[in-house]
Write a structure and sequence with these properties.
The complex is a heterodimer of chains A (417) and B (308).
Chain A (H helix, E strand, L loop, with lengths): L1 H22 L1 E8 L2 H17 L3 E8 L4 H10 L6 E5 L3 H6 L13 H7 L8 E2 L2 E2 L2 E6 L1 E6 H6 L11 H11 L1 E2 L5 E6 L3 H16 L5 E2 L4 E2 L4 H15 L12 H6 L3 E7 L3 H4 L7 E4 L11 E2 L1 E7 L5 H14 L2 H10 L3 E2 L2 H4 L2 H4 L4 H9 L1 E2 L6 H16 L5 H20 L1
Parallel strand pairs in A: 1-2, 1-3, 9-12, 14-17
Antiparallel strand pairs in A: 3-15, 4-5, 6-15, 6-16, 7-12, 7-13, 8-9, 10-11
Helix pairs in contact in A: 2-13, 8-9, 8-17, 17-18
Chain B lengths: L1 H10 L1 H4 L3 H34 L16 H7 L2 H32 L6 H13 L2 H11 L7 H8 L14 H27 L2 H9 L4 H12 L1 H16 L3 H6 L14 H10 L4 H25 L4
Helix pairs in contact in B: 3-15, 4-15, 5-9, 5-12, 6-9, 7-9, 9-12, 12-15, 14-15
The chains are: A alpha/beta (417), B mainly alpha (308).
Chain lengths: 417, 308
Amino acid sequence: MRFGHMLASVALGFATLASTGAKAVEIEYWQYVFDTRVKAMNQLITKFQEANPDIKVKQTTFPYADYQTKVAAAILAGQGPDVVQLFYGWTDNFIAGKMIRPLRAEAFPSAEIERDFFPIVSAMKRGNDYYGLPTAVRSLALFYNKKAFKDAGLDPNNPPKTIDELVAAAEKTVKRDGSGNIVSAGMTLDMGGQDHQWWREVLIRQFGGVPYTENDTKVGYNDEAGLKALTFYTDLQKKLKVGQAGFMDEGQAAFRAGLAAMTIDGTFRLGSFGTIKAFEWGVTELPANAQGVRSNYASYFANAITTKAEGEKLAAAEKFLKYVSSPEAMKVWLEVVGELPARRTAALTPENISHPIYGPFLKGLEYSHTTLFKDEAAQRQVAIDMANRVLIGGEDPRTSLAKAAEAEQAIIDRAKR
Amino acid sequence: MSAVAHREAARGGLWSRRSLGQKQVIWAWSFLAVPLVFYVVIRFWPTFQAFYLSVTDWTITKPAAFVGLENYGRLLGDPLFWQVFRNTFLYLILGTPISLLISFVVAYYLDRVRFMHSFIRALYFLPFLTTAAAMAWVWRWFYQPVPIGVINDVLSSLGIPQQPFLRSTTQALPAVLAPAVWAGLGFQIIIFLAGLRAIPVTYYEAARIDGLPEGAILRKITLPLLKPTLVFLVVFSSIGFLRIFDQVYNINTNDPGGPLNSTKPLVLMIYQTAFSSYEMGYAAAQTVVLFVILLVISLVQLRLMRDR
């Protein structure tokens, strides 16, 4: 009797397995390994599969370092994902390699995308087509050490609002030893971190220039505004001596260790700074210039549908992409990963805006820019070298700026071929 | 076993007619074939492919198109290449003699030490066992400015101004080279010790009976008889310094090869061109150049130091 029961249940199990196995469409989703991102995606997949029992989503992850190479190799070999996560800056590469397909306008109308998402989503648009949609976006803000502010006699609840106030606060909080060596920085200087984004999309604009023209295909900063922006940046070390490139190895390390009063960093740093126990820190919008002009740099990973997805898999992939870029998914992403929703309505809730940490980042999204990098690592290197020529080599900022503009233009031109 | 028996039966007299010597040769070759095939497929085939890729503009995502010698032309006109070329040879020209001199001196005297000989030898060998990446990170910390940099902390406590080390275009390369030399010492010392031990004691005894001074013994007996060891170590360490990568990459991960490319070796340039910019064709051309350099230097060294 008991045996009969067991047999029956096993048979039933096989039957259901076989029937769902036959009906369900399985699609593959790829992203790089990052603990909270994988966790958030697992939650989204579970919810999506509950609502769509006929679709199964398989998530594959691997280290960030090999990500682009592996995705490219897999798709070109006819394997790999149906829905793939990519950095917005890789879009040109992925399109050129025929790895991702444009989103069908019937499923994802452009007008709706432009109405609902923050304007930076335009970095996924080529011609009239969108090639992917983000779940979450990242922006920059000024992190400040409240304890250092208090110790220097500054109001820890009134962080700098303008560039002049930033400089004044840095001068007050910097600490030097008897020989003039910095032992605690007022402001971190780290072009290899986020400073190159700050310089490119924020400082240049605040000094009256534009970093690029003609859809980011022409370098536009080799002028007076660019020069002022670079001089301002390098003077923080050379003249004002409130910070020093290479101090504590990295800007974020200096801030973490409590040895820097201020640093500019992105939403992705919240997880790491969240574990600081030695002091209290705060976040504020990137400082405005004297005329009140603000800017910010935003970036994101988007999800796109690959050329591998066809027929019913394509339909399933579209459904999945719609779900992971829905307000509901964005809420999960914010809670689990700490990245900001890419849709205006999901992001700009009263609760989020008044949030002491998310608030400043969200306000930044309204006026942020997204650089259309051709080769992010190489373009970042140009900025690092530009600052180093002035800081280490003692080169005239004007000459260094001209060299940087020429080198970056060459990178952009080469990518166009 | 059965497969062998089957084959023997099938080929009938062919196998049994072979002499024992021939059979041994066939067996030897069938065993040698395994690593040989492996080498051809895993090493030589990709090498030939690299030669082919160097005349294309392959970028992983775009299919490869033949571009002739364009990549080589671009390389010759690229100021970064010449800087990197200079750096690579600086690593070689500084690294090889310095490391050989230090390791020879250590081995020469260690050879005479009886007290705790094995222990001291083990101490010198330890860095060689350490992962280059881990070592580079520790040294990176040594070189930091105050308040965390060990060397600068000592300097400034003595009233000496702190040094930029990795943040200087002139000091960075020697600063990166130091841990690389240090890490290689253990291996070179062991090889030198083996070489010293291989010299027959009778030569020394004869020299001492004839009253030759120690300096002359070193010049007339030790060094000439160490020549094979020396040739091996020079070639081996030259290739090592020409291919230097992990120390450089890990000691300055935020700006690998920096500042201002002053520590960037050719291998790092190849890596960045291939796996950061995805310009595989251009990277392959750089690889071919590195291959030629390694080949020429090895051949020249072997010829110069060959026994006449």
